[in-house]
Amino acid sequence: MKLSTRIITAVLLVAGSSGVVYAYSKHGDWGMTPAEKAEFVSDRVTRKLDLDSEQQQKFNELASLVVDIMHEVKASREDHVSEISRLLEEPSFNQAQVLELIQLKTQLINEKAPIVIGSLAVFLDSLNADQKQELQEFMQRHHRHGHGHGHDH
Q1: CA–CA separation, 119 vs 82, rounded Å?
Q2: Could you read off the pLDDT tens digit of each residue along the chain, which spans 153 residues?
Q3: Nearest C-alpha neighbor of 123 from the set 105, 135, 107
Q4: Read out DSSP for the chain?
Q5: Are the C-beta atoms of 32 and 140 separated by less than 8 Å?
């Protein structure tokens, strides 16, 4: 899994519920648009954590931000795949160009991480003690069962 995808997945895992969030990032297409997937996850999180309307709005803002970043990452990924394919055709592998591609991806992550973390903080700070406990229990189950591969107890 790419580093950018791992960061986005980690954000969703912290804010999300059970295996649905893992599936959101892992099982790419589901025949849904990214916005439809975000709505599906948002509905699941809202039910699982019993979010009020303000909390749901904060989560929706977080999910929308993540969807926007995923669109951006996908667009750059297609460019990078084309560039790497071109580099593989060259007689000598251009390490400097590959390093530059990696640095561009890292730059995108570094630019977006504070924004995502800020939005995540706003959402998490809006949760009450019971909701935070539910998230903690999810994280414990997630860790205990090998990264939440479909496990929901």
Answers
A1: 33
A2: 555 555 555 555 554 433 344 444 544 556 777 777 778 878 888 888 888 999 989 988 888 888 888 778 777 777 878 888 888 888 898 888 888 888 887 888 788 889 989 998 999 999 999 988 888 887 777 666 554 444 444
A3: 135
A4: --HHHHHHHHHHHHHS-HHHHHHHHHS--TT--HHHHHHHHHHHHHHHHT--HHHHHHHHHHHHHHHHHHHHHHHHHHHHHHHHHHHHHSSS--HHHHHHHHHHHHHHHHHHHHHHHHHHHHHHHT--HHHHHHHHHHHHHHHHTTTTSS---
A5: no
Question: How far apart are the C-alpha atoms of 43 and 67, rounded to whole Å?
Answer: 15
Number of neighbouring beta carbons within 10 Å of residue 132: 13
CA separation, residue 45 to residues 51, 72, 89, 125, 136 (Å): 8, 24, 46, 16, 14
Q: What's the one-letter identity of residue 111?
A: E
Tokens of residue 95, six digits: 């390490």
* pTM as predicted: 0.65
Cβ neighbours of residue 134 closer than 8 Å, sequence gap 6 or more: 17, 48, 49
